[in-house]
Specification:
The protein contains seven helices and nine strands. With 245 residues, it is α/β, with parallel strands linked by helices. The protein has a domain of 154 residues: Class I glutamine amidotransferase (GATase) domain (Rossmann fold, 3-Layer(aba) Sandwich), CATH 3.40.50.
Length: 245
Amino acid sequence: MDQTGRIIELADGPRVTIWNEYRHEKSDENVREVYPQGIHGALAAMLKEAGFQARTATLDEPEHGLPEVVLGTTDVLLWWGHVAHEEVSDETVEKVHERVLGGMGLIVLHSGHFSRIFKKLMGTTCDLKWRLNDRERLWVVAPGHPIAEGLGEFIELEEEMYGEPFDVPQPDELVFVSHFGGGEVFRSGLCYRRGRGRVFYFRPGHEENRSYHNPDVQLVIKNAVRWAAPTPGATPVYGHYEPIE
């Protein structure tokens, strides 16, 4: 990592921090049964088993679990939030935003579409339509993309419905499109570049459903971590610049 906080090389593999607001698991017994260690705990265990360096951070920790020392040693940040988006401080949003522009990868999960950091990076409302519990068939529409590596034609889930229109910018790459039992469709796997960082939005993950225990969903997240991890590249130069010749 250089003096500006930009990551210039990886350690043995991507260093992953899973951020979760961690409210539903404490207040709702049904959610606690699905994720007894919290959504962040389930994701961290899965990533550690796959060989990643993974740690967790939650909303109610000091500095929301994301002090400079944590963000500065995070290659990819996963973000899950739902009922407490507005409790995330301006300072944390700015720090994460700066780290993404500097090269840190960001994977935004499910209802994290309304997170302050995702809306800041997208510059839109990130709004959508929704309905609880429907059959989701999540189609792979970019089978050659590294995030889809190892998958079949689609993933089938019991999930909360998200439907178009989804008020986000056109993605650089679209990997998944969902179709629901009620007829709705939704862009469920969207890739963006912001500054030197890569951002991936992945739709599944309602707290009352078991999607993060699904092997195919887990595979997508593992692939996305590898895709979003920073890679060495040319250092950009900004501001007033003297001619070379």
